[in-house]
Model the fold of this input.
Amino acid sequence: MTEILMPKATAVWLIDNTSLTFDQIAEFCGLHPLEVRGIADGDVAAGVRGADPIANDQLTREEIEKAEKSSAYRMVAKKSKHEEKMQTKRTGPRYTPLSRRQERPNAIAWLVKNHPELTDGQISRLIGTTKTTIQAVRDRSHWNASNISAEDPVALGLCSQIELDDAVLKAAKKKRKADEAAGIVDEGESLKPVAESLAEPEAEPEDPRRRRPVDADAVFANFPTDGGDAEKDGDEKP
Done:
């Protein structure tokens, strides 16, 4: 849903001029239903002057009438023709707070070690650093190389886990395509399907000879039972 201007002031106007439910107003204004109820009771946004969303070109009268006829209907804000111009596009490296900039070399070392498929450009955009710094960390020519220790950039707060996973996924796909184009085949063992991994291994066929009954008489037939050999090998009796 398109974000609207002055959500609380818009909620005040909708409460005073429509029969919409608190849930409908909360959904449209991006507020919590209890907050809308507080506005209606005068506990929240006291003294705030209502803003007409129709006059501000954020909502149409027809949309309000549809919502008033059905409490399950959720109003959709009009998309401003200037919305695209109002959005700021980030073209340079990510801005990193001054207090965390000294931790970027540690994050670079971690990314280079654990995700070698990432390019310098991807690392630069991910944690807001320069390619010169990345190269210095790679070849150990950084001025503070002796004190650099690999640390997860997510734990350092330099990027989110979603951003890191997305960058790694894109880098892996790009590398795979490049390997396929160069005729390089990964012969490593691939992961087996879950069903196959959890299945019990097939039992080896049993040797039929192991199941043959043992004839004890035949086994001990050649062994003397009277102790004669023992007397011949022993000392003669006087």
Notes: The two ends are 117 Å apart (CA to CA).
